[in-house]
Amino acid sequence: MSKTVEFFFDLGSPASYLAWTQLPALCARHDAQLRYRPMLLGGVFQATGNASPAMVPAKARYVFADFQRYAKRYGVTLAFPPGFPVNTLGLMRGTMAVQLFQPERFEAYLAALFPAMWVQQRNLGDPQVLATVLREAGFDPEQYQAWSADPQVKAALKEATEEAVRRGTFGAPTFFVGEQMFFGQDRLEFVEAALA
Q1: Minimum mean pLDDT among 51-55, 74-78, 95-99: which range?
Q2: Domain range for residue 146?
Q3: pLDDT tens across 127-149, in order?
Q4: CB within 8 A of 27, min separation 6: which ones?
Q5: Which is catalytic among the residues 2, 13, 52, 148?
Q6: Domains: count for the chain
Q7: What does the record give as the active site (predicted)?
């Protein structure tokens, strides 16, 4: 029976980006299916009383340095976009929409959006910048906006976020292997052990 890793993420989370750079290869090594689960991190924070480490200056300094250590270990670039932290409500509705309406292009979408924000430092909270990034990746920004406003999409993102919270999620990224939950890109070795 093939195993599955559920990956609850928000594009505005640097730790989600770092995890995304590693997960496909990790899952491939263990013949596991990677199931992408978009959620709204702001909604998770609201429901759980948690907050971004960026809100606590001493913690922010440590966490951002630690992210760079992991980026170096993974051999990837991590550069913070202007306007961080970004309000990702529209962005994550759009992400959910692509997953629902264009699932065959979902991985291509992530491959465009994650690096746009965390490598090229583009502020995806700015509608103009987002439209440019989408167009460059072969997506129709007008279609994306229309999808993002679709009540079905809004409901799906809300439900996914509520499900994540019900299952114990308090931040991003959060992974589930069966009933086991792991939080943070620095826990990927435990995800890997659970698959092995």
Answers
A1: 51-55
A2: 4-195
A3: 999 999 999 999 999 999 999 99
A4: 5, 33, 34, 195
A5: 13
A6: 1
A7: 13
